[in-house]
């Protein structure tokens, strides 16, 4: 596996080694962290192995997954894109910061690191995210994502490569 790492001032993102799957299990099973994204997730060992092969190593060309680490080298969440379509150059965004680490701008920086890679190295042109909680909605608005559609509590957002690069230049 390539040792992908992108560093910011508060956090860095890196593809996890398989041995770090225990942290991902902990993150996904934490009720407080997962409450806003549909609840805790529990997989069998076999499903975790398949998930890792599809999302991380060797990957399937449609998904890209990293853990978020603070500068003390502690994993504090995850950031990824999934469902990449080579024809339309689009994907869906995912970010989760462990509940106890929220409010420190870790998620903001991790998303910016991932988007910089997605748009300027990977070849993505558009990324989407559907959010149904107030914190997520406010975060995407702060990151200058465009609202495409609102259905009840769910909001569909979009960011283009052009808009991302304009925002970063400012």
Automatic annotation (TrEMBL):
Q: Which UniProt keywords apply?
A: Transferase
Residue ranges of the N-acetyltransferase domain? 11-162
Answer whether the UniProt record assigns the keyword Transferase to this protein: yes
* InterPro entries from the UniProt entry: Acyl_CoA_acyltransferase, GNAT_dom
Q: Name one GO molecular function term.
A: acyltransferase activity, transferring groups other than amino-acyl groups
**One Pfam family from the record:** Acetyltransf_3
Which superkingdom does the taxonomy of this entry point to?
A: Bacteria
Task: Name it.
Answer: GNAT family N-acetyltransferase
**Which organism is this entry from?**
Clostridium senegalense
């Amino acid at each position: 596996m390539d040792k992908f790492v992108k560093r910011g001032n508060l956090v860095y993102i890196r593809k996890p080694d398989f041995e770090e799957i225990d942290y991902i299990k902990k993150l996904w099973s934490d009720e407080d962290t997962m409450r806003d994204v549909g609840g805790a997730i529990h997989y069998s060992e076999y499903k975790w192995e398949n998930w890792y092969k599809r999302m991380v190593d060797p990957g399937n060309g449609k998904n890209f997954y990293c853990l978020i680490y603070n500068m003390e080298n502690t994993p504090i969440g995850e950031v990824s894109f999934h469902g990449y379509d080579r024809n339309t150059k689009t994907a869906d965004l995912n970010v989760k910061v462990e509940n106890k680490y929220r409010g420190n701008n870790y998620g903001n920086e991790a998303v910016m690191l991932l988007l910089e890679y997605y748009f300027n190295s990977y070849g993505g042109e558009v990324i989407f995210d559907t959010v149904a909680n107030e914190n997520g909605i406010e975060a995407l608005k702060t990151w200058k994502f465009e609202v495409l559609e609102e259905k009840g509590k769910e909001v569909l957002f979009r960011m283009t490569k052009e808009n991302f690069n304009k925002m970063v230049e400012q």
